[in-house]
Amino acid sequence: MREKFRGTVLGAALGDAIGKCLEDITQEDVLEFYGGRVEGFVPPHPLSPAYGQLPEETSDETTIFKILIESLINRKSLDVRDFLHRLSLWHKDELSHRYPDPILITSIELLSAGVNPSTHGIRSSSVEGILRSVAVGLFHYYNPALAAEGSRLVSLLTHRSDEVSDGAAVLGSAIAYLISEEFNLEDFREKLRFLEALEDTLNTDRFRRVFDRIENLLIESQPLEVAVETLGNGSYVFEALPLALYIFLSNTHTPLEALWQAVNSYGDFGGDTDSVGFITGALVGAYAGVEVFPENLIEDLEDSEYYIELADKLYEITELAKGLV
User: Fold this and answer.
1) Are 276 and 268 a contacting pair, CB within 8 Å?
2) Residue 80: what are its φ and ψ, rounded to 5°?
3) What is the pLDDT of residues 124-149, one digit of tens each?
4) Which helix (H) or strand (E) holds 312?
5) What three-state secondary structure class fits 216?
């Protein structure tokens, strides 16, 4: 179980760090600049928003995830006020920012001033709003329904939309199910049951058709290129999230391949490869554990020892919380 916690945290950070280098870059430009598919740390492409960062560095997407884990450990509970306080402190330290989501920054400023972002028309369906729910999925792994609702809460704090609400619930419960090993994903029928369980967390019917597309792609064993064309790979929640789910489920027998496909999910027009990489890396780590990732990648990842420390502490806190339920 501890190895799964480590794998989830490190997998998310690895997917973000590697994927950031290819964000918004077309397949043609990737192949021209890197000479082929990327499978490890590389300098960010000059056209990527991450240009100027070191290869092993993560983006602000991992930073927000880390802040929530720190809050969970410190408070030993899901304390939204504490999470917001920590976000406010991070926001004030502008030197630590790495091309943050504008909606995130605006929402933090409004909330810190005691203003509800919804009253100012702040709405976002960006997948960046749901990535932190991976931490909630870990914290409530023994209760996927609780993981889903907690994920909605922390995600809607800054990103207000039906897409973020449902996407967060799907991702949080997915992590919980994988940690608890409720499904044997080596069995194809179990993959479909897993998708059905995730679909059951939706409050909005209009997103259910996305799960039909994932299922059809799995049945047809379609390659990554077809999945990108069918599901999309942009920052919209119900593009990046379904694509990550498909990549993960289509590679359960070779989980590391899922990570490589995720960070290379740019397609013909570029895509949100760091978010797809973050989600897929977290799913892979929750499913297969930390040992699936090459040791040299973990060693070279920025702050990897601290991520391991956080994962271990979160595991210990979670086991204590579970014992009180």
Assistant:
1) no
2) -65, -35
3) 999 999 999 999 999 999 999 999 99
4) helix 304-323
5) helix
Rounded CA-CA distance 237/123 in Å is 13
Cα 182 from chain centroid (whole Å)? 20
Query: Which of 151, 138, 116 lies closest to 241 in space, CA to CA?
Result: 151
Beta strands per DSSP E along 181-315: none
- Give the integer Cα–Cα distance in Å for 293 and 39: 12
Rg of the Cα trace of the chain? Answer: 18
CATH class of 2-323: mainly alpha
Closest CA to 278 of 11, 6, 7, 22: 11
Report the alpha-carbon distance of residue 80 to residue 103 in Å, rounded.
Answer: 18
How confident is the model over 303-308, as a mean pLDDT?
98
> Does residue 266 come out as left (phi exceeding 0), alpha (psi in the -120 to 50 range) or beta?
alpha
Domain boundaries, the chain: 2-323
Q: Which residues contact 234 (CB under 8 A, 6 or more apart)?
A: 240, 271, 272
Q: Which residues contact 15 (CB under 8 A, 6 or more apart)?
A: 259, 262, 263, 274, 276, 277, 278, 279, 280, 281, 282
**What is the four-CA torsion angle of 11, 303, 69, 52, rounded to 10 degrees?**
-80
Element (H, E) at 314: helix 304-323
Span 229-254, pLDDT tens digits: 999 999 999 999 999 999 999 999 99
Q: Which residues contact 102 (CB under 8 A, 6 or more apart)?
A: none
